[in-house]
Design goal:
single chain, 203 residues, mainly alpha, two-stranded antiparallel sheet, signal, membrane, transmembrane
C-alpha cells in the first residue's frame, strides 16, 4: 500500500477549499445553487480520494465510502450546525452530498475494474470460468489449482487401492476377445506336412 502524492495533494486542497466554503460564514448560495454546490463538491472529493491510496479495489471502495460518503458527507453537515456561522442543519444538503459522493464512487469503481481487466488481457491471463467477475487483487476469482480426478488417468496405486476382491473377474471375456494364434513351431510343422502330402500326390 502506498500513497499517490499528486492525488493526495489535490484532495487536501479540495478539502480545505470545501471546508472554508462550507464551514465559514461565506455565502455562495447567491451565486450557485446550494444543492448543486454540495453535489459537485463531494463528487470531486470522492473521485480524487479514490485514487489516493494504491491498494486493492475492495479496500479502496470501502475506504472511500467511509471517509467521503459517511464521515465527510454526513458528518460535515452536523459539524456545520454547531459552528457559529449563521448556517442551519439541512437534510437535503446531506442528500446532495451522498448522491454526489456515490456517483463519483460508482464511476471510479467501474473504471478501476475496467483498468484491471485490460491489465489482465495484456498479460494473457484467462480467468476461471464462472469467476471472472471478481477482482483478483481481492483474492477472488483465483484458480485453486485443484483438478478433477476424472480428467486424468488412474495410477497403478489407485487401481490397487480401488480393487474389489469380491468383484467377478472378466479374464475369460478378455481372452475370448483375443484370437488364438498358432505358434511358429506348429505352423512350420504344418507347412512340412502339407509339402510331403503334395509330393506323394504328384508321385
Amino acid at each position: 500500500m502506498r500513497i499517490r502524492l499528486p492525488f493526495a495533494g489535490a484532495f487536501l486542497f479540495l478539502l480545505l477549499l470545501a471546508g472554508y466554503a462550507g464551514l465559514s460564514s461565506i455565502q455562495l448560495g447567491a451565486y450557485v445553487n446550494d444543492k448543486v454546490l454540495h453535489f459537485v463538491t463531494f463528487f470531486l472529493l470522492t473521485v480524487v480520494f479514490y485514487w489516493v491510496v494504491d491498494t486493492n479495489r475492495r479496500r479502496t471502495l470501502h475506504m472511500t465510502l467511509v471517509v467521503c460518503t459517511l464521515i465527510l458527507g454526513v458528518g460535515s453537515e452536523f459539524l456545520q450546525s454547531f459552528l457559529p456561522n449563521n448556517r442551519d442543519f439541512d437534510i437535503y444538503d446531506i442528500v446532495a452530498n451522498i448522491v454526489g459522493s456515490l456517483l463519483g464512487l460508482g464511476i471510479c469503481a467501474w473504471y478501476h475494474r475496467r483498468m484491471l481487466e485490460r491489465k489482465r488481457q495484456r498479460k494473457h491471463y484467462d480467468a476461471v470460468p464462472g469467476e471472472d467477475t471478481e477482482d483478483v487483487e481481492l483474492g477472488q476469482g483465483q484458480e485453486s489449482g485443484i483438478t478433477d480426478s476424472s480428467s486424468r488417468g488412474r495410477t497403478l496405486e489407485e487401481e490397487v487401492d480401488n480393487w474389489d476382491e469380491n468383484a467377478e473377474d472378466n479374464w475369460d471375456e478378455d481372452n475370448a476377445s483375443i484370437p488364438d494364434m498358432p505358434s511358429p513351431a506348429i505352423a512350420k510343422e504344418t507347412d512340412v506336412a502339407d509339402a510331403r502330402e503334395a509330393k506323394k500326390r504328384t508321385d
